[in-house]
Amino acid sequence: QAQLVESGGGLVQAGGSLRLSCAASGTVFSIGVMGWYRGHQRELVGQITSVGNTNYADSVKGRFTISRDNVKNTVYLQMNSLTPEDTAVYYCNAQIRHYSDSSWSDDWGQGTQVTVSS
């Protein structure tokens, strides 16, 4: 079983920055696509493949940057020029291959709150 643990959320003023982190642990053999989503409907924010290809929601392009460290099994989301519309719970997602039986799972973190004040 694998776990995703997010950190880095908090309260920031409009125009400010935050950096979210999400680390995978447990029975992780390898990780495919990793991504960040937000809100109750889990709107896609950005994704990154294992070789570093990225895609973003139009609403965050040019402001947010997703990156990953394959050695640490960690994905990051650098958020700049934040606006109140970015306020949401942010969830980490990862496609994880398990060393126990080589099966794949689609795992989610517990979410981290980001609040942007005007």
Order of helices and strands: EEEEEEEEEEE
Strand fraction band? over 45%
Cα distance spanning the termini: 41 Å
Question: Which structural class fits the helix and strand makeup?
Answer: mainly beta
- Stretches where pLDDT is under 50 for at least 5 consecutive residues are none
Helix content class: under 10%
Question: What Rg, in angstroms, do the CA atoms define?
Answer: 14 Å
Shape assignment: elongated
Describe this entry's structure for a reader.
There is one protein chain. The protein has 118 residues and is mostly beta strands. The chain has no helices and 11 strands. Strands 2, 4, 5, 6, 9, 10 and 11 form a 7-stranded mixed beta sheet that branches. The chain has a 4-stranded antiparallel beta sheet with strand order 1-3-8-7, with no helix packed on it. Strand 5 (43-48) and strand 6 form a beta hairpin. The mean pLDDT is 96.
List its salient traits:
118 residues; mainly beta; four-stranded antiparallel beta sheet; 11 strands; 62% strand; elongated
Q: Which SSEs are present, and which pair or pack?
A:
Blueprint: E1 2-7, E2 10-13, E3 18-26, E4 28-38, E5 43-48, E6 54-56, E7 64-69, E8 74-79, E9 88-98, E10 104-108, E11 112-117
Parallel strand pairs: 2-11
Antiparallel strand pairs: 1-3, 3-8, 4-5, 4-9, 5-6, 7-8, 9-10, 9-11
What's the short story on this structure?
With about 120 residues, the chain is mostly beta strands. It has strands at about 1-5, 10-15, 20-25, 30-40, 45-50, 55, 65-70, 75-80, 90-100, 105-110, 110-115. The chain contains no helices and 11 strands.
